[in-house]
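User: Working on a comparison across species. This one is Undecaprenyl-diphosphatase from Lysinibacillus parviboronicapiens. Can you predict its structure so I can line it up against the others?
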Amino acid sequence: MNISEINNQLFRTVNSLGKEYQHLNLPMIIIAEYTVFFLAIFVILLWFTKNKEHKIMLICGSIAFILAEIVGKLAGLLHFNHQPFAVLSNTNQLIEKAVDNSFPSDHTILFFSFCMTFWLFKKGTWFGWILLAILVGVSRIWVGVHYPLDVFVGAVIGITCASIIYFTVPKLTVLTTTITKYEAIEKVIIANFIKLKKTKI
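Assistant: Here's the predicted structure for Undecaprenyl-diphosphatase from Lysinibacillus parviboronicapiens:
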């Protein structure tokens, strides 16, 4: 059995669970489609916690994601496959998706880039984020838009890029200097906004 056959068989195993456990389809659709908004809201709120370590962590996560996306696009040039629903019969497709190259999974790259960064910065205590990234990857297979190999490679790329950035970028003095200057500007803007609001009252 070659890699392609194993990939297809694993996909069938996960994707067919949606037919057997239909009550889990809605949660999986929500995870596959909308957790990206949860991640975005969390990142925005965390940025304004006035914690310098959080800002460094979020910047590293963003850089890791950008790097991972570039690597992912390069990987996509080396290998191409359409989404399972476009190729395999009797696929349990639960969400709409344009037919294009599904290798590797962009959602998986995004979540592993940020979640691995969170886990590294928090010394392994934010393990729930890693579980969320895994769940997002599994959900993309469950809803029929990615193969296990798409998800696995996306996870490897995200984890690798997050690790590289974690061990290099925080050591750059320009990063802490830039954040310090940003925070000073932010304080002035907030102070002026409060002052303007009081004068209007």
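For your comparison, note: The chain has two domains: 13-167, 177-201.

User: Helpful, thanks.
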